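Key result, reporting period 2: structure in, sequence out.
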C-alpha cells in the first residue's frame, strides 16, 4: 500500500511539475503584455550556475523597445549600454529619440544558488501586436556562466531549445 502512495505521489509531482525544466531557466514575468504600452517586468533568476552563486545578470534589450528603466537593487550596481536608433527617429513624450538602451547589467550580490531573485525593468513596448520579443540573458556566477540566449527559428517551438532567451508576447490593445 505504501509503495502505491509513494508512486502516486511521485506521479502527481511529475504531473504538477512537468514544466519544471522551463522554470530552471531565466524567465520574464509576466510573459505577455499589451503592444504599444508601458510595461513593468522582472527577469526571474531561479538558481546559480552548477551550484555557485550568481554575481551578474546581463540582458540584451530587443529592437523596438524605445525606453527602458532598470530596477535598482541593494547590493547590486547597474550598468547601462546604449545604441543609436537607425532610420526614422521616433518621438517619445514629444522628444525625438536618437538612442535607446541596448543592454542592462546588474553586478553584485551574490545571489546564492539555493535562492532566487528578480531583476526589474520598466519599458515602452513597440506597437507590434502578435510579435514575440526576446531578451537574451547572460548569467555570470562565481564559477561558470549560463547563456539564456537561444531564440527559436521560424516555426520552431521554444521548449525545444536548451537555453531559451526569456520571451514576451505582445497582445493587441483592447477594442
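The corresponding designed sequence is given below.
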Amino acid at each position: 500500500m505504501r509503495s502505491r502512495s509513494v508512486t502516486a505521489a511521485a506521479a502527481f509531482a511529475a504531473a504538477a511539475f512537468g514544466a519544471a525544466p522551463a522554470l530552471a531557466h531565466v524567465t520574464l514575468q509576466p510573459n505577455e503584455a499589451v503592444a504599444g504600452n508601458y510595461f513593468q517586468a522582472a527577469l526571474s533568476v531561479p538558481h546559480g550556475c552548477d551550484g555557485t552563486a550568481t554575481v551578474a545578470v546581463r540582458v540584451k534589450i530587443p529592437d523596438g523597445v524605445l525606453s527602458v528603466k532598470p530596477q535598482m537593487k541593494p547590493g547590486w550596481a547597474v550598468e547601462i549600454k546604449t545604441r543609436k536608433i537607425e532610420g526614422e527617429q521616433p518621438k517619445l513624450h514629444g522628444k525625438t529619440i536618437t538612442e535607446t538602451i541596448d543592454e542592462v547589467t546588474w553586478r553584485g550580490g551574490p545571489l546564492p544558488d539555493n535562492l532566487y531573485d528578480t531583476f526589474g525593468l520598466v519599458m515602452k513596448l513597440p506597437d507590434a501586436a502578435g510579435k514575440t520579443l526576446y531578451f537574451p540573458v547572460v548569467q555570470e556566477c562565481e564559477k561558470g556562466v549560463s547563456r539564456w540566449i537561444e531564440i527559436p527559428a521560424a516555426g520552431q517551438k521554444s521548449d525545444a531549445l536548451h537555453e531559451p532567451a526569456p520571451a514576451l508576447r505582445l497582445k493587441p490593445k483592447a477594442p
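The CA atoms of residues 78 and 118 lie 14 Å apart. The chain has a mean pLDDT of 85. This case is discussed further under Risks and Mitigation.
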